[in-house]
Design goal:
The complex is a heterodimer of chains A (583) and B (368). With 583 residues, chain A is mainly α. Helix content of chain A is 58%, strand content 6%. In chain B, strand 10 and strand 11 form a beta hairpin. Classes of the chains: A mainly alpha (583), B alpha+beta (368).
Chain lengths: 583, 368
């Protein structure tokens, strides 16, 4: 029990002893602390360190756009009527007056044309959804390519992946709600995908749509998923994601003083709170700008849903693009056997391939961990070039994604560029198998070349661009050593180790258990890491330095800049060594 | 500089050791910013931040003004098809938010302390003592509950939990009716009609259901179609109105379900262009009738290639040959478009002889 000194008279001189009047804020804080132990929490968390790097901002965009989604979405629920009951439209939008339509569609028109700011909120909601999913994708790629998923962060990698899946599901449920011609067509396709499910497809379709498509319950059902269930799950997972982030502390880039054992950066209070809070307003503001100036999903132009109509050039939201592309380029395989139908043409692109691709990305960290056998914690990020195989794998997957995206818009490509629709489709069927391996190979070699360039900078210094002529008449380019800080940063990474098959047989001469698995592991390890360039050893560095000194001796006759290079100082100055401004 | 990879230890530090040919030079010295050392720069930054926050106040006022001044419904196409209200409100809101955000960030960057601080990391794993204590506690719990010693209780609890898990799944059964044979019939089949529809049919005094134009519902004569025409059509019953109340007989969800299976296209071609015998037999004077619903995933098909008699689905580009039993000539659809057998009724209008002889729309498992 510590003594509360504020209540104790602090003078015994000639003024009368009085107790100090406690200040208001302090009193409130004290009241709360007595019940919630806020002091301890503040002590632990308020000065929590967050390292600074632009790429750490990507996840923040996702977080803040989700907050924008909650705010704008709540506004929309005040007027949106999630019902498929039909009535005749008599609202402000003259071109649809007298047209029978569902309450969902009519209330979306009402929000767009009768509620001030309603259209703005609708457009901001839709744009924020696009941003949310896009930011999650880019954040995932950042995490992947820098190895930020390594121990102890594997669980957070899974949580993040689940967030991406839920985000896409949430987006699909959301844009299906207005019950316009485009979203109805999306639901019709979803119904087709469901019906293709082996054995239970029709039953699932009838249960989900409450009878035959389109039925009259799918909008209210999607609505409750969209406003309660999925956002609730997303919110819970975001909470978990952030808790784990705080618990593990953020990863950081290697650099002088930045090691595996510490985290260097700005404290939560005040700098990070201000920056992150300010960034929330920036994301919100950019969304408002987009909502103001960029038209999105003008449902009044599509008209209410009618299963016998469709517009040419119908496209889903961008994140459904790869499913669309897969559906479009899949050959028309269907098996009729033992009185049943297996629709490979729908099953593979709709239910198998997207999850397979997603699973490959999500599973890679675990494959990597198994191959390397690395059980250590990692808090320093890897530069993409220093994990060539991983980087190349992501590049290949991005290529698959991009190709499928293009395939999903094959009709748009055909009409815009006057290409043959059929040729685009045939090309894509082959391209998704041929181009990604090429991209993989090029990226991998590119990374390895960059690793070599790093070693060159370490061993021979950087190119000054100054050409020296020796007394004998030979020409050389002058190299100068890079700063100690840069050199340290380049070498602050681990050497790759290649797993070797320990022994084909155990001590009794019997084939060792798991020998085949071990051989696969060794083979993968060689394939993934054997070509990587390792950083130089201390001896190699010493030898290179020795060599450079010798060269400098040769150049030592030159105590002034070479002719024409008097003002090259800015080239010789290494930015890491000398700051631009002195205090 | 270890060559082997140690397991995580519990000595309080992550065991990763970076192989370092160069020793860590340590954090570089902090550099003061102009705002730290130059009172002028500091005051300028202060004015910038306050100015930005002031701008946010101005933006808020402008927002309220635009809210009052502009009505939404007036002209949605004003200002680049975006609507004056939308643009004004959006720009004002953006101004408020961006100014606030920029102000806060400028404040953080220029005026708040920019000393980086260092925090040490600790392994995520709990310490060895804690682990052992945890195991001991769990062991105690296991022993005190007797879960290990009393398999009867354990197994019956597992059974109860498993059965409980089934109940919610059972309760979902009423989400929708069972499919039955609904996917095998369309409203072209008079036997599927409701009593109201049957009653209306009695007043018509005919035996064949006409194929009528979509949207307007007018019956079609052979001479109404030119060679190469493509017409969207529907069964006439969906346009039927009650003779007394003049209200549509099929409406709302029933109408949408009916259309989602019964929509058709009519196409007229030179009879000699028709390739397949069945297509010819089921046509009338070169007019063929096919389901409009794609056999891939159910989009309505409507893009007509006039010279080739090909019909293209705008969703996934499956292409069907209308001259040859609706054969798939391109794209992901596997089955031909179902053809509707056409005839001409006593008044000379196109009519359906019978329902489709196979399910229309996307494939499903038990379809065979």
């Amino acid at each position: 029990m510590s003594l509360d000194t504020s209540k104790i008279a602090d003078t015994n001189r000639d003024t009368p002893a009085t107790t100090k009047k406690p200040n208001k804020a302090g009193a409130v804080a004290g009241w709360a602390d007595d019940r919630l132990s806020l002091g301890t929490l503040t002590k632990v968390f308020a000065r929590k360190v967050f390292p600074d790097h632009w790429s750490f901002m990507l996840g923040e965009i996702a977080l803040w756009s989700f907050v924008v989604l909650l705010l704008t979405g709540t506004f929309l629920t005040f007027w949106f009527v999630p019902s498929m009951s039909e009535s005749t439209y008599e609202g402000s939008y003259t071109q649809l007056r007298g047209v029978p339509m569902s309450d969902a569609y009519a209330s979306t028109l009402h929000i767009s044309f009768d509620i001030r700011g309603g259209l703005l909120m609708r457009q901001m909601h839709h744009w924020a959804a696009m941003l949310f999913i896009a930011a999650m994708f880019v954040h995932l790629m950042r995490t992947f390519v820098t190895g930020a998923f390594r121990k102890p962060r594997e669980l957070n990698w899974i949580v993040g992946s689940m967030l991406l899946l839920l985000g896409i599901l949430e987006g699909f449920a959301g844009y299906s709600l207005p019950d316009d011609l485009l979203s109805g067509t999306g639901l019709r396709i979803a119904d087709g995908l469901i019906k293709a499910t082996p054995v239970v497809g029709t039953y699932m379709s009838f249960l989900i749509f409450g009878g035959e498509f389109p039925g009259d319950v799918i909008i209210p059902r999607l609505y409750i998923l969209h406003v309660l269930l999925i956002p609730g799950l997303i919110l819970a997972l975001i909470g978990l994601h952030m808790t784990l982030l705080v618990f593990h502390k953020h990863t950081q880039w290697a650099g002088p003083g930045r090691t595996e054992r510490n985290v260097v950066g700005f404290p939560m209070l005040p700098v990070y709170a201000a920056k992150a809070g300010g960034f929330f307003f920036m994301v919100f503001g950019v969304t408002a700008l987009m909502g103001a100036l960029l038209s999105i999903n003008p449902i009044w132009k599509y008209g209410p849903y009618d299963p016998s109509k469709v517009t040419a050039g119908s496209q889903p939201d961008w994140y459904m693009g790869i499913a669309e592309g897969l559906l479009r380029i899949m050959p028309n395989w269907e098996t009729h056997i033992w009185g049943v139908t297996i629709s490979w043409n729908v099953l593979i692109p709709g239910q198998i391939a997207p999850f397979l691709l997603f699973g490959m990305i999500i599973g890679w960290p675990f494959l990597e961990q198994w191959v390397t056998g690395d059980k250590r914690e990692h808090h320093l990020l890897q530069r993409p070039r220093n994990a060539p195989t991983r980087t190349a794998f992501l590049a290949a997957m991005v290529t698959v994604y991009g190709l499928l995206w293009a395939a999903g818009g094959n009709d748009i490509l055909a009409t815009h560029f006057h290409w043959s629709l059929n040729s685009i489709t045939y090309f894509m069927r082959a391209a998704i198998f041929i181009i990604p391996p090429i991209v993989f190979y090029i990226t991998r070699r590119w990374c390895i070349a960059l690793q070599r360039a790093d070693n060159d900078r370490l061993l021979h210094g950087y190119e000054t661009g100054i050409i020296m002529r020796s007394p004998e008449g030979g020409y050389t380019e002058r190299h100068l050593p890079i700063s100690e800080a840069s050199a340290y940063t380049l070498t602050a990474r681990q050497r790759d180790q290649i797993h070797e098959v320990e022994s084909e047989v155990d001590e009794n001469g019997v084939a060792a258990p798991g020998g085949r698995v071990d051989r696969v592991r060794a083979k993968l390890s060689r394939g993934m890491y054997a070509d990587n360039v390792q950083k130089p050893t201390a001896e190699e560095l010493e030898e290179a330095r020795h060599h450079a000194e010798h060269e400098h001796e040769l150049e030592s006759g030159l105590d002034h800049p070479a002719a024409g290079h008097e003002f090259d100082d800015h080239n010789l100055r290494d930015v890491d060594d000398i700051p631009l401004r002195h205090p | 500089m270890s060559d082997h990879l140690p397991e995580t230890t519990h000595d309080g530090h992550p065991p990763v050791v970076v192989d370092e040919p160069i020793p860590d030079p340590g954090l570089p010295a902090h550099e003061w910013r102009p705002t730290d050392v130059d009172p002028k720069a500091e005051r300028r930054a202060e004015r910038q931040v306050a100015g930005l926050f002031g701008l946010a106040v101005v933006g808020s006022i402008l927002f309220v003004v635009s809210y009052v001044v502009f009505q939404v419904g007036d002209d949605p196409d004003l200002i680049g098809n975006l609507g004056a209200s939308n643009v004004a409100l959006g720009l004002c809101l953006a101004l408020v938010l961006l100014a606030m955000g920029a102000g806060m960030i400028q404040w953080a960057r220029k005026l708040m302390g920019d000393q980086e601080i260092v925090e040490m990391r600790h392994p995520a794993a709990s310490s060895q003592e804690d682990r052992e204590a945890a195991v001991a506690i769990l062991q105690t719990g296991l022993e005190e509950s007797g879960l290990g010693r009393r398999p009867l209780i354990r197994n019956s609890l597992l059974a109860a939990g498993g059965v409980l898990g089934i109940l919610p799944i059972v309760m979902l059964a009423d989400l929708g009716p069972l499919p039955g044979d609904k996917l095998y019939h369309t409203i072209w089949d008079l036997d599927t009609w409701t009593p109201e529809m049957q009653a209306w049919w009695q007043t018509q005094n005919r035996t064949l259901q006409r194929v009528v134009r979509d949207v307007v519902g007018t019956p079609i004569k052979v001479t109404d179609l030119e060679i190469g025409d493509l017409v969207n059509a529907e069964p006439e019953v969906i346009f039927a109105t009650d003779p007394e109340t003049k209200q549509p007989i099929v409406e709302g969800t029933d109408l949408l379900i009916a259309k989602s299976k019964a929509a058709v296209v009519l196409h007229r071609m030179v009879p000699s262009d028709i390739v397949s015998e069945q297509t010819l037999n089921w046509s009338v004077a070169g007019i063929v009738c096919y389901s409009k619903i794609c056999t891939h995933v159910g989009c309505p098909i409507s893009l007509n290639e006039r010279t080739t008699h090909h019909l293209l689905c705008p969703c996934h580009q499956s292409t069907f040959d209308l001259a040859d039993s609706g054969r798939v000539v391109f794209g992901p659809a596997a089955r031909p478009l179902p053809q509707l057998e056409l005839t001409v009724d006593d008044d000379g209008y196109l009519a359906a002889k019978q329902d489709f002889n196979e399910p229309v729309g996307p494939s499903f498992w038990e379809r065979g």
